[in-house]
Amino acid sequence: MIGRLAVRSLTAHPIRSAVLAAGFGVGVSVMAILLGVAEVVLDQARSPSLVGGGDVVLRIGPQVPARLVLSGTLQADALRDRVLVAAPWHTSDLFLVKNDGTTAALSVRGGIPSLERALGDPETDTAGWQDTAADAAWTRVSPAESLRLIDAFHPVPDAPEWADSWAEWLYFNGRAGGAQFYLTFMVGPPDADGLRPAGVRLQLDRGGRMESYSASAKLTQADVDRAPELSIAGNHVRLDGLRYIVELDLAGRGGVRAAGTVTIDAEPGRLLPPIQISGARGWLTGYVVPVMSGRLGGALRVGGAIVSFAGGTGYHDHNWGFWRGVSWQWGQVQHGGRSFLYGRVFPPPEAADAERLPGFLGVLGPDGPQGFATNVRITEQNDARGLPQAILVRGRGPTVDITLHFDVQSREVTRMPEGPLANNVDFLQMRGTYTVSGRAGDERVDFTAPGSAETFRSTEGAHPGARAPVPEALRREPRR
Fold first, then answer.
1. In this predicted structure, what is the pLDDT of residue 130?
2. Which of 1, 114, 281, 436 lies 20 to 30 Å from 204, alpha-carbon distance?
């Protein structure tokens, strides 16, 4: 019936029907042509040959140090032999002002002449266009220089509301044999005299017994500007090429001293680039991991005993920002040449909405990065005292599908009632065992290894950033 009505409607006005059919046909054809042309234009716009040649174009935001990509990420074992030329370039707007006061806007691009020519860009074949001294800072940067770049301390931002909570620190941890250590070199905000309060804290675990050693001093701004070459009360961090050399002489309880030298070796490309989070009224926090996993060396004399770290495995990160009202969850584990790192920051509510700041999980393999995820869930299970006894981390993304189960074996609890990190909560540093399973890149992962974790506890026994009750049970997922 419907078909008969349609036929009669079309045949009743044959000319009108023919015109409509032709119009629809032309419209569909034009749309198909436009879509095809748009796809070709888009492909051409993305073509490396239009921006100076090469096979791959990487577009990075202004918050990522491009020199770090050149001398860090692209120096990873998985990429080093495959990169013939890496030529950085930058686009910007240029405004020309005419004699009559009118302006003309132009889009310009700047690059490094020698590298652009190496890519075969014909537009750079100009005799007067040569590398300058500033260009050499890009073409000759080494992995060691990259470490200094990302490990340098930052100027204190002009944010009066948060100014008294600024702190920046170098953190190291490591394990060898039955000994493990946590070490922090921290610098606070300037005081009324322009001096920066600073401190060194060593936590040494020998056979399950935690010992603490510390020292403090005030530094000038010039002292701080030398970081990562940092000296506090006779304790020093030095960077010699890719090796961090830490010299310690710290006092502990009962007059016992911990003194000696510990070294940790970085490797090109095996790092986590800087991450910085910004919030309202100038609030910010930042984090970088120059050494995801490095070889330890050296030893400490503690009382009359020698604690050796030769042949052990170490880790080094660097934090900066405003810390009043801030808490976090963090953990790391190493096994079989891989390093796994996860974390989440909980800012003060007046600075940012914690629900909108995702966690992260990254995996670094023997040859470089294997993947990361920002779809990360970190769940803590408390014991009867409100302290974490297990942590479950689930990270899902295009390149990783990882589950980490952390069994807490020991905790070091620190109350921070004053100073830049004052939150009137307990800071927990934990040691234990991770059970890790899932996929990293194209490889299966399934292992158990010792590792570390950090979190906070309010007086109610929950993480200060938690918005929902902690589940009563935390079940380990079956191995796959």
1. 79
2. 436
